[in-house]
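INFO batch 0412 | record 1 of 1 | parsing
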Amino acid sequence: MLQPKIVKVEPMDEYKLRLSYETGEVRVFDVLPYIAGDWFEELKNKDYFRTVRVISGGYGIEWSNGQDIAPHELYEMSTLLQ
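INFO prediction complete | emitting tokens
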């Protein structure tokens, strides 16, 4: 399934991301389960966690040191807000 493009990502408390999609959907994704692994450990630093950005074209999100989460996971494993 193709996910709609992400137009905005906002870091929230408790290692959650608020994702706004081109469809008008707003979803919340919990990053905390991912932080246990070595690749994502740097995200424990809340200042670094807040630097998340949308990948050019809206096809995903990333942090400056290369951490990212697959777009289908962001969409399918998130909770719909609106």
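INFO post-check: Residues 6-80 form a domain with the NE0471 N-terminal domain-like fold (CATH 3.30.2020.10).
INFO record closed
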